[in-house]
Amino acid sequence: MAKDRFQGHDYYLMDELLTEEHRLIRDSVREWIKRDVSPIIEDYAQRAEFPTQIIKGLAEVGAFGPYIPAEYGGGGLDQISYGLIMQEVERGDSGVRSTASVQSSLVMYPIYTYGTEEQRKKYLPKLATGEMMGCFGLTEPDHGSNPSGMTTHFKDAGDHVILNGAKMWISNAPFADIAVVWAKDENGDIRGLVVERGMEGFSTPETHNKWSLRASATGELVFDNVKVPKANIFPTIKGLKGPLGCLNSARYGIAWGAIGAAMDCYDTALRYSQERQQFGRPIGGFQLQQKKLAEMITEITKAQLLTWRLGVLKNENRATPAQISMAKRNNVNMALQIAREARQMLGGMGITGEYPIMRHMMNLESVVTYEGTHDIHLLITGMDVTGFNAFT
Amino acid sequence: MKILVCISNVPDTTTKINFSDDAKSFVTAGVQFIINPYDEIALTRALELTEAQGGTVTVLHVGDASTEPTIRKALAIGATDAVRVNAAPRDAYFVAKQIAAYAKDQGFDMIMTGRESIDYNGSQVASMVGELLDQPSISIVKVLNVEGTTATLEREIEGGKEVITCPLPLVVSATEGMAEARIPNMRGIMSARTKPLTTIEAIEVPSLQQFVKYDKPAARSQVKLVAADDVKGLVDLLHNEAKAI
Description:
heterodimer; A: alpha+beta; four-stranded antiparallel beta sheet; three-stranded mixed beta sheet; B: alpha/beta; nine-stranded mixed beta sheet; 11 strands; globular
């Protein structure tokens, strides 16, 4: 890939709404992405391999559990810091951001929020440094948008439980050391438990031949009579609100992350339009290209305002799941549309790995689907404003 | 070891430079400021030395309150504490006098700067500080090692390199190769919150120079292509238009 010349875009002077520390965090992650991720990511994506060597760097820049309290190894930072970190990481690649989202929101968040003190102390410090990597098992082959229909279940067997079932489309699964798994107990209640690699009957086959998130490892979680100690079960949380709490945190991060991908596409297309000459002048001087760029920066600016406000609400613990759904749906769709338009502006060059656009575009096809599909989030907003449930 | 690193607050290298209508000042609106990259090299080497041998690194900056994000970044990278001399830096002499005034009774083993700041590129401060403090100053240093109370330094010279030893205390200006600048990590950013950043008032310094005006380089003119066999045309253009011959 050509040298990463990315510059952030801040049309409405949003930086003035950030603290000095927010900006330092964002700029540091941006610098790290330019130094350690941009130069290698295209190659890893082309080879469909996760660059494990960046795990340490992700931990150091604060991408693993930035809002988890420092006493458990987290950063003790606020939600806007978390958002900005996700934005910058996804500016590099959605697959890398997925790894960080899973570790932070889907593994560290539930262990911190629902776990016992022993569970927190055992897992969180190692997850924060990347010494231990985690994954999250909710989706099943036959239960995606309808997680409450899950069939993975466990039975009481004295000091442990016996877990059976399978999970699918699990980011980080192939290399994860632990999995936060959601399964039904004998009463049919959804419970969360931590399954560790090495437990007999637990395997994580990799999902191959993806055209999206190619620099991120995806796999299945297969449980064949896995003995899980009862000490690994989250003690009190029951029902779908457990996993949905995690998803709220992850979706919030995705809403910010998508802005990163969108900005990278816009930035690339803008620079290309100023340098690429056709008919004797830069293509940025033609109205059709300006229409694309003007609409892109308008949508990016709207998304920035949306997420900043959502971040303030989240810091005050006032952000509703429906508000988070709106931001995730809007921003990911915005990024996907911008990626497609930007790809067109680059013509043939847009399909090559010389530029990041096509990789972002393919990645975003996953992002628009996972963590609640584009359609499901629409139904959440629909239900929120009408009071009627249109899911079933 | 006790090291003082002097940092400048300079426009990011990608900044589009504009001057005020009267051509007397640089327009800072919308400009992203960073730690002068050469100063960052000095800071990193100072940290490497104190991490290996023990000691403290104080950063000093001459500037108004708007420059504090730059100082905070230096603390996040690893400096122990920071001092801001509360004044807009007028020129190299003014800055050197402030540094010398602060450092003279602090007992620093070494004072480090970058080889030059990337805005005005004066390359004067380190030598002036050395002179004002009556300490040796060695400029544009590529390699810096310290053993006991002796520093060994390498400089690039025409056709080779120069190796120098010098007793501490001394003043050093750093260039590429001395260290690889670090990116602040989250732990560093968190700990920077509570590190001391002291503000002191500037001493009086006479103005020895005045900026008359700034000009941007003239825009490059269009290239004219002359047919390979049109020697007369080429000579004509060089003589009459470019006035080069």
